[in-house]
């Protein structure tokens, strides 16, 4: 404080206060305080909004299935049989954070997950992190919410928690580690940066407004201070996959439609078979969960951009304009891997991306892709640092992601233009019952 | 190429072709080609869309004033008396690139600016970079457009060119360098990273869809290959200023409304006085132009978040909720720097940000702020690398930005939470007449 400005703060207010829990009870009503709410700013009922099912007994709220209902610019149910943000129609923007535990105290982590759950549920409903409002009720304490999402809608925010293998090791919970949560093998061509890989846990924030996603991650990181610290984080500015038939197929930074043949929320049997952990798959606590694979894939776009259209299309196996498989005419025509061109060669080349990644080339393996385009400034060598932050959800990474990535790493001609420099695998616990908290089945 | 896939490419197609000018004339109509257009995908008339005024004689097209007309999700006129992207209502997202010349050939740079102009005008109209369409007409050449914006609307894209002091030195044009394009002095506390500072020229892309802005920068960089190379680039995910009274005031990552008292497009006299270079201000070629100051300001948000609400509000000089000056009740109440609180001390503290930055504290200095929030991953020490990419436009940086920044750097209590690690200053030429090209007045 400058000596020229008389302070109105009480003497006991520390100059550099220790982190204050955002849920600190209010002690006074101060200037600018008073249960300020994002929704009130928007003309909705404010702090009094009741969260459906909050405080009720265990049980899934009706309609809160996280089952892929479109919810553009709206509220995606936070609770349900599965975590939201997996089959939820892919939102436009993403902020993903990998965190390391700075504590080995299991009970402390459990308490953190309870706090996180309360804040996450509020934020996905378009509210501030705590019932104390955006600025808090006590001017001598840090505000309960960091404030940058004030006035913004829920924007379809979803928050998805994942646990890395090292989580179980650090907390002495090796017996609870799912066998499917393997250490990913090295793949041909991997150039992994440890500062962009791994992590004890992760939170994926997806929303239609990037400020809403950034706000959510920042506030969860803040609540975790003392128990977790940021290991790496990644912004994605544009979705590269559709996870619903209601969505148009977006384009990746190679300029091609991406995810045409992705699993879709409207195919529940396929989703059950390939995405959700079923009873008997592993430890009971993971039933209803899924595994999240993250790969930061730098794309050498400058080299790609000097490649001929024909070469690009043969590498992908689809046309650049319409996005049809080279065996067909329309985007959603089923790729016919046996089709031949006029010269008797395969219409879809033998090393084309869509052939190698096709279920019929991989004994039926399918994955749910949910990645995002990124540009992270430049690389210092005259090029943009751009690419695809690949995110996929699978029922079992060992039998789904590993064989697919191995085939691509070894044979995909596209690999010439790619650099996998980040990699992580997380177990995403099942969804939250009413009154429950993230990963509760692991702790109880 | 794999030996197992017979190539259908002609023998003369090089395996690693040299960069092909995107405007290479078509030689054949190939698979997937054919004048594909972003607009055609959207159901608009396609490649035949005529650009208003294109090819007409010198003169400003009616209605193309770049004068701040709201154009949400629409097309912002590319041509006009001033460059677009300055008083244009601030779009939601930004991609900014600083480039260095890799050529010292003035005529080559002039030709590049002509090519850039043609591509930029098309992209701001929601079209591909060239009339050859998105994928080009020749499958043996690289596509004319990189493709990732196919199907996306114009999204209010603006592209704004700026020239750094080193531009004039490299091209032997020192006599043309405007005296106002100074070398910025060092400010107290500066921690500038040369890899985030300076640059021979810059292009600011603002749009309401980040993929549209990224696409534009990438394609301009591509067209510039051989003449320019990326020095640094910055994505901004959310605007932190309003430049029109029609816009709500957004919030920065300190959680406060930012730019409440900014210059607005609806105040043309103020804009003329503080933003546009007038005749007699400097070299004639800059008349109608402006100067762009860019500062990458890391915000130590974790420390800020541990600061009490009262402290935060006294540092800013406004409340966090409503955003009113501490001397008033409502956001747009004029800050009364002379107002006193009940205890006789200044209502707006003597070292508050809004006092130090106020025109009345700076002999009437005002600037047009047009910055963006950013999060660039993490810093490797457990924190997010987050902050404000400050962009301002001024008529004269020496008499406007320098005294303001000097006052803030020396006295602003907020500086404790900030780290200025990037800095650059560019001269933005005036707008483009019909048929003219970027910076034409400099070359002719």
Describe the model.
The structure is a homodimer of 444-residue chains. Chain A is of the alpha+beta class and 444 residues long. The first copy, chain A, has helices at 38-41, 106-124, 165-170, 210-224, 268-274, 301-304, 309-316, 353-356, 401-411, 440-443, and strands at residues 93-101, 158-163, 201-207, 228-236, 238-239, 290-299, 368-369, 372-378, 384-394, 418-428. In chain A, strands 5, 6, 7, 8, 9 and 10 form a 6-stranded antiparallel beta sheet that branches. In chain A, helix 2 (106-124) runs antiparallel to helix 4 (210-224). The longest helix of chain A is centred in the first third of the chain and has 19 residues, at 106-124. The first copy, chain A, is globular and about 75 Å long.
SSE inventory with pairings:
Two copies of one chain form a homodimer.
Chain A: H1 38-41, E1 93-101, H2 106-124, E2 158-163, H3 165-170, E3 201-207, H4 210-224, E4 228-236, E5 238-239, H5 268-274, E6 290-299, H6 301-304, H7 309-316, H8 353-356, E7 368-369, E8 372-378, E9 384-394, H9 401-411, E10 418-428, H10 440-443
Antiparallel strand pairs in A: 1-3, 1-4, 2-3, 5-8, 6-9, 6-10, 7-9, 8-9
Helix pairs in contact in A: 2-4
Q: TL;DR of this structure?
A:
Two copies of one chain form a homodimer. The first copy, chain A, has 444 residues and is an alpha+beta fold.
């Amino acid at each position: 404080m400058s000596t020229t400005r008389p302070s109105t703060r009480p003497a006991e207010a520390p100059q550099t206060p220790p982190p204050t829990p955002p849920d600190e009870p209010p002690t006074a009503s101060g200037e600018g305080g008073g249960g300020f709410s994002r929704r009130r700013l928007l003309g909705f009922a404010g702090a009094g909004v009741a969260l459906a099912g909050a405080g009720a007994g265990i049980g899934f709220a009706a309609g809160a299935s996280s089952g892929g209902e479109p919810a553009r610019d709206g509220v995606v149910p936070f609770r349900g049989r599965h975590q939201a943000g997996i089959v939820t129609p892919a939102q436009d923007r993403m902020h993903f954070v990998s965190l390391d535990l700075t504590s080995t105290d299991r009970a402390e982590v459990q308490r953190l997950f309870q706090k996180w759950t309360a804040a996450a549920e509020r934020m996905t409903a378009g509210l501030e992190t705590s019932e104390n409002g955006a600025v808090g009720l006590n001017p001598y304490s840090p505000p309960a919410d960091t404030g940058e999402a004030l006035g913004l809608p829920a924007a379809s925010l979803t928050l998805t928690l994942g646990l890395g293998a090292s989580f179980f090791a650090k907390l002495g919970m090796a017996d609870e580690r799912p066998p499917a949560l393997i250490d990913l093998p090295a793949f041909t061509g991997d150039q992994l940066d440890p500062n962009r890989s791994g992590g004890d846990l992760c939170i994926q924030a997806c929303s239609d407004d990037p400020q809403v996603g950034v706000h959510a991650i920042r506030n969860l990181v803040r609540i975790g201070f003392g128990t977790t610290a940021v290991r790496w984080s990644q912004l994605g500015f544009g979705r590269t996959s559709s996870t619903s038939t209601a969505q148009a197929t977006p384009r990746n930074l190679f300029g091609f439609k991406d995810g045409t043949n992705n699993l879709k929320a409207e195919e529940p049997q396929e989703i059950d078979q390939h995405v959700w952990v079923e009873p008997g798959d592993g430890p009971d606590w993971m039933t209803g969960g899924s595994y999240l694979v993250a790969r930061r894939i730098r794309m050498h776009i400058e080299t790609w951009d000097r490649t001929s259209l024909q070469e690009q299309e043969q590498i992908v196996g689809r046309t650049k304009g319409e996005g049809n498989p080279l065996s067909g005419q329309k985007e959603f025509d089923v790729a016919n891997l046996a089709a031949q061109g006029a010269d008797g060669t395969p219409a879809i080349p033998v090393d084309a991306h869509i052939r190698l990644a096709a279920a019929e080339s991989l004994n039926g393996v399918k994955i749910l892709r949910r990645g995002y385009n990124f540009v992270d400034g430049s690389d210092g060598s005259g090029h943009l640092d751009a690419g695809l932050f690949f995110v996929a959800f699978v029922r079992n990474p060992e039998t789904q992601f590993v064989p697919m990535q191995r085939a691509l790493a070894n044979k995909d001609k596209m690999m010439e233009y790619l650099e996998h420099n980040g990699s992580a695998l997380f177990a995403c616990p099942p969804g939250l019952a009413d009154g429950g908290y993230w990963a509760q089945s692991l702790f109880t």
